[in-house]
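[Meeting: bench + compute handoff]

Bench side (C.D.) handed over the final construct sequence. Compute side (W.E.) agreed to return the predicted structure before the next meeting so the bench team could plan truncations. Sequence as handed over:
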Amino acid sequence: MHGLEQYLMDIIYNYRYTGLFILLTGGMVGIPVPDEFLMTFSGFQISLGRMNFGKTLLVATLGSFLGMNLSYWIGRRLGIPFLHKISPILHLNERKIARAEHWFQRFGDRLIVIGYFFPGFRHFTAYFSGISELHYGRYATLAGVGAFLWTLTFITLGRILGGHWEKILYILHHYLARGGIILALIVFLIYLYSVKRGRLSREDRIE
């Protein structure tokens, strides 16, 4: 077990709900915290009778939801100006930035819920939701549903697995990380297809 994971386990063990809430909030903003690890370990603590299932689920959901909302508003308030500042480094121009915004407005909100289950991808959906100024009411609803389903899954998993939670989580996290790459690739291909289809439709109108 890595030193960071042991340290996080100690926080959950000693501070329980408060520790879980703060760590998940920070993790959803982008602090490098193994979120699934925290929830599965909390589920293991439930199986030992040290934490309550309902309270743990509520705290984890609220912490995740708060973190996703902070990411949304950071993206909304700072995202576009910051993106313009670094655009020369990323070889982006106004047209490419506008196209990226259009892509997320068209497809991105559908990925908010499922994006929770893929490490790294959930941060992308939160920040880009803010950058693209996705309607907050819709975003908050989808982020809330996603937070509940995500935390419910991993807390229940830790509770059921008991002492085997860490071994199974390692295997699961390995495949989720691969799945995140695949999901990002699928999203990118959808984007390319939409751009190509839009170009062809414009050419047809010209003809």
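W.E. noted at the follow-up: Residues 118 and 180 are 5 Å apart (CA to CA). C.D. will use this when planning the next construct.
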